[in-house]
Amino acid sequence: MGRMYGKGKGISASAIPYKRTAPSWLKKDPKEVVDDVCKMARKGIKPSAIGVRLRDSYGISQVKAVTGNKILRILKKQGLAPEIPEDLWYLIKKAVVMRKHLERNRQDRDCKFRLIMVESKIHRIARYYKKARQLPPTFKYESSNAAAMVS
After folding, report:
1. How crowded is residue 148: how many other Cβ atoms within 10 Å of its Cβ?
2. Could you tell me which residue, 53 or 3, shows the higher pLDDT?
3. For the chain, does the N or the C end have fewer beta carbons within 10 angstroms?
4. HEC profile of the chain
5. Is the separation of the CB atoms in 85 and 134 below 8 Å?
6. In Å, what is the CA distance from 114 to each residue of 5, 11, 85?
7. Dist. CA 63–CA 54, nearest whole Å
């Protein structure tokens, strides 16, 4: 099936390891992994970047296999979870950059079209997160205050 906002029709993606237990060679204790995740979150690193750092630095392919909880659940339990979900945050950031580009290049019609697509995606995802109660019901995306949200 085709994508909503792209030309791609592929289904390829990375595969998570089949084995759902921690590797036998891993020397880190689950409590140490949780502490590392919380330390990185306090520095302002996003949950997906925390996963990449743990994979690249410590060889932890799946945090859930080691600790029993996903990164975002660990952060929510510690009270360190971001207030705006990460995918929505990055879309808002993209829209802010596109608006800034459009201010300098008014004639860029392709950018204007793509901005409309990104903003409609933002509204759709925000509606989902409100329904799932991960965003407050009063949350509303407005392009005028979007830059303040992502800074």
Report:
1. 8
2. 53
3. N
4. CCCCCCCCCCCCCCCCCCCCCCCCCCCCCHHHHHHHHHHHHHCCCCHHHHHHHHHHHHCCCCHHHHHCCCHHHHHHHHCCCCCCCHHHHHHHHHHHHHHHHHHHCCCCHHHHHHHHHHHHHHHHHHHHHHHCCCCCCCCCCCCCCHHHHHC
5. yes
6. 9, 23, 22
7. 8
Q: Give the pair of three-digit tokens for residue 57.
A: 């630095």
Crossing angle for the helix pair 109-131 and 86-104, nearest 10 degrees? 160
What digits encode the pLDDT tens for the residues 46-87? 999 999 999 999 999 899 999 999 999 999 999 999 999 999
